[in-house]
Amino acid sequence: MVPRLLELVASNLPDVKQRREDVLNQKRFMLAQLLRRTEDILQHAQRSDWESVEVLEQARQAEIAACFANANEEDSPLVAEALATLIHMNDQISQLVRAAKAEVVHSQRSREAQKSVAHQYRDGF
Hints:
The structure is a single chain. This protein has 4 helices and no strands. By secondary structure, the chain is mainly alpha-helical. 10% of the residues are buried.
């Protein structure tokens, strides 16, 4: 009777291959979420919605930490492809941020110059 019970228990336990497949599927799902979040950030950056970019980036940082916390060699091709895509989107986001920052700086300098001219004009009379 005991050997029969052991057979039942053993047959219900996932084998090592199945566990690896489950972990890999979970990793794929996490990477897909991470890529989707990064794409969302890029879309908000393209619309100059910087508040949403900041909120989404904070959530993305937590996802990055969780996704790569248990990386192993079996993940390498999958992780490498996802990282290449993430780097590409991050470059696009960075370019948009730099352009927006330059625009803000230019706008601020323009306002300061206008104030200066207004003060000079006012002080001249």
